[in-house]
Amino acid sequence: MTTTHIQNFYADKLKDGYSAKTIALMHSTLRKALDSAVRDGMVARNVAALVTPPRLTSFDAHILSVEEARRLIDTARGSRLEALIILAITTGLRKGELLALRWQDVDLQEGVLYVRRTVNRYGKYGMIVSEPKTKSSRRRIVLAEIAVNALKVHYEVQKQRKEAARDIWEENNLVFCNRSGKYLLPETFHKQFKNLLRKGGLPDIRLHDLRHSAASLLLAMGVHPKVVQELLGHSSISTTLDVYSHVIPSLQREASEKMHNLLQIQDESVGKDEI
Q: Which chain positions lie within coiled-coil regions (predicted)?
């Protein structure tokens, strides 16, 4: 392993939509592992110590407006990504959680889904399934009606594609899969997603920005941060408030306006008894 290998790996993760914070955690883990390898005499030096991970930057995601979110959904109508995009916008699921979702995780009758696993691609090892990264990431999500309806249509369409594929179909019970039933590769999905953005005249965003958009739209509607935290699977409410602090000023203005409206009648009556 060389420093170039590690730098290229970090560059690939950035292209896949991973944040600098996540890559910094990867770097910390790799550096500790190689420290142990040096102590055990397995490698001569820790090359990770010679690499600087991407710098952590301030929150720079593109948050879709309500109009932009509606336009993206309208543009995706009838495409293979329609249900996936609706689910991403309405639930804030991470890419790995979406691609790892199986039909046994979804209860369309009750309108809920369960996040039980995630999947990521690791070079020559392919798609690797793992447990969610934290206990809070394993969660139950109540679905919006638009998401339930989209998944019902998606299920029927997938049944038809499965019958048409016949012998080439590999049953993995995945909600979102390729034409042969296998995992939808990130690069394939990425290309389809970017095509939809161009078609809809939308900003060149990442899929992860749909997660940020979901959270920001919910907070802007007045949904309690605790509910948003549980929906996103954040380990603590402080994480949610730190990441989405840009939404808080508008919420404070709305709160002050509500307080004014609540007390306005009383305020107008102040001093009248003295006249």
A: none
In the structure encoding, which two tokens stand for residue 198, read together?
């161009």
Using alpha carbons, select from 17, 8, 10 the residue that is nearest to residue 190. 17
* 106-107, strands of its sheet edge to edge: 106-107, 112-115, 139-142
**pLDDT surpassing 70 at residue 149:** yes
The confidence score (pLDDT) of residue 39 equals 92
Burial 229-266 (b: 16+ CB within 10 A, else e): bbbbbbeeeeebbebbeebeeeeeeeeeeeeeeeeeee
Q: Strand locations in 211-260, DSSP E?
A: none
Structure tokens at 26: 């990867």
* 1.10.8.50, 1.10.443.10, 2.60.40.1600, 2.60.40.10: CATH of 66-232: 1.10.443.10
Nearest CA to 69 out of 227, 176, 209, 262 is that of 209
Which 8-state DSSP code applies to residue 106?
A: E
Among 131, 133, 121, CA closest to 232: 133
Give, in degrees to the nearest 5, the angle at Cα 85 between 82 and 87: 105
pLDDT at 269 over 60: no
Are the C-beta atoms of residues 30 and 38 closer than 8 Å to each other? no
pLDDT greater than 90 at residue 224: no
Give yes or no for a contact between 76 and 225, defined as CB atoms under 8 angstroms apart. Answer: no
Q: Which sequence spans correspond to the domains of the chain?
A: 3-50, 66-232
Length of the chain: 275
Question: What are the tens digits of pLDDT across the range 157-183?
Answer: 999 999 999 899 999 999 999 999 999
pLDDT > 90? residue 72: yes
